[in-house]
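Board notes, transcribed. Complex of a protein with 2-OXO-4-methylpentanoic acid.
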Amino acid sequence: MAKEKLEDLEWTNLGFKYRDLPYSFQAVYKDGVWQEGGLTEDSTIVLSEAAQVLHYGQEVFEGLKAYRWKDGSLHLFRPEENAARLRRSAERMSMAPYPEDKFVEACKEVVKANADFVPPYGSGGTLYLRPFLIGSEPIVGVDAAQEYIFRIYATPVGAYINGLHPAAYMVSAYDRAAHAGTGRAKTSGNYAASLYPHELAKKLGYADALYLDPREHKYVDEFGGANFFGITKEGNFVTPKSVSVLPSITKKSLLVVAQDLGLNPQEVRIPFDEVDDLVEAGAMGTAAVISPVGSLTYNDEKHVFYSETEAGPITTKLYETLTGIQNGDLPDTHNWTVPV
Ligand code: PLP
Ligand code: COI
């Protein structure tokens, strides 16, 4: 694959796709230690045919964005949270965690090295970073690897779903993760399990699948690539309390933003039977940002939230506040943004 040319990029129409940028970061774990990592121009990885990740799935990853502010400076959003989650995911998958301070430094290095590819302020685009960790040791029996590769690639992106336009979702009869499984870890197997329900949803004209809790299929869990939130009739921000959803950094931030906005945020179990009590609903995540849920269809019954064509006022306010902080247009009172 050829390297991306800067002059070929249309900043306001990037979509959400991989582009091969000049630099990635790589570090290798061998003999019980992480060797010093560094930038590489090689965007390929050479692996043994018996590498652990290819057969038994030791892979964990992250997603975070770099933003170009009005004055041209570049900032990451809460990268230390991604570092900590990668460590927790790695522990769940019995992998050697990558040191958290080195994770943040490596993210900065990748942004600096690819700085020309951070979309301009006001374009709606960002530089998406994908740090990931794989078990690279050749292994035949089922076991954890003793060798790992940590890597970060960067790619400029626009909207993942529909931006602030509502999207329609269907409730899946499948699970993406088990009750006491790996849902809290950001690991490839959860996404592999979501592909079939995702394709099914797409075929039927929906943006994605919403999963219910895997034990009872009674409570709202999350989407394939984003957490769920709702606004109650009383104007409260609610989001599912569940052991099988990914602890989203966007959610963690919006719980604070909602508090600041007087929306009495709560993490609670949300019975699907009661979703009609929500006056607005949305998907939240790094890629999704805040994406309004126009409707949820379950067993041929469609539940509409606020409007199928327009974002609700509270969803809009949350979006403007969060993206305002991320883009440097609003005061960062919680010290979430990190200059590169
Ligand atoms: N849930 C799933 C399954 C995801 O893949 C993501 C994306 O990272 C999220 C939630 C949102 O997490 P975050 O806000 O940390 O990006
Ligand atoms: C992210 O939001 O960073 C994700 O990893 C979601 C992914 C499904 C694109």
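The pocket of 2-OXO-4-methylpentanoic acid (ligand 2) is lined by residues 63, 160, 225, 285-287 (CB under 6 Å). The first helix runs from residue 52 to 56.
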